[in-house]
Design a protein that fits this description.
- The chain has three helices and no strands.
- With 173 residues, the chain is mostly helical.
């Protein structure tokens, strides 16, 4: 029932809209050629440029990530070097302090030993000086005793008399 009506409507359709087969085919061919030209010369280069740009962006992001990683590694290495230097400096300071303390102890011991030697030498020298003075006093005392004896007795004493009187006087001291 609708078929004849539909068939009649299809035949009148081109005339109603002014549709002509030759013009339609020419428009289709022109459209196809235009699409081909746009795709070939417009869209493909643009797509190629966009793909290259996307690749460069990806490479840039990868380089940025590598740079960040390398920067972190360099910072970590720098911190390790600083820590090692601090530790080495601390050890050197401890060693220097220990060496200084040992040197101070050694110098104190050496100074003490030298002081003891000086004191001992001074004591020996004082003892020698004391003995010399005692000997000098004994000699002077003996001379004075001999002189006093000579004056008291009125006799000139011989060398033998001097020795005997000196020996007696010294033995009584």
């Amino acid at each position: 029932m609708y078929q004849p009506l539909l068939a009649a409507g299809l035949q009148e359709l081109p005339e109603t809209f002014g549709l002509h087969a030759e013009a339609f085919i020419a428009h289709c061919i022109a459209f196809t050629v235009l699409v081909f030209i746009i795709v070939k010369f417009g869209l493909k280069p643009v797509m190629t440029l966009l793909e290259e740009r996307r690749k460069r962006i990806v490479e840039g992001e990868e380089m940025h990530a590598r740079s960040q990683k390398e920067l972190a590694e360099v910072q970590a290495a720098g911190e390790k070097i600083l820590d090692d230097a601090r530790e080495s400096g601390r050890k050197e300071m401890e060693h220097a302090r220990a060496t200084a303390a040992k040197l101070q102890d050694d110098l104190s011991a050496k100074a003490s030993a030298e002081a003891q030697t000086v004191i001992e030498n001074a004591r020996k020298q004082a003892a020698l000086d004391t003995q010399r003075e005692k000997d000098a006093l004994k000699g002077e005392f003996a001379r004075l005793v001999a002189q006093a004896t000579a004056q008291v007795t009125g006799k000139v004493l011989t060398e033998e008399d001097h020795r005997r009187i000196n020996a007696e006087a010294i033995s009584h001291l």
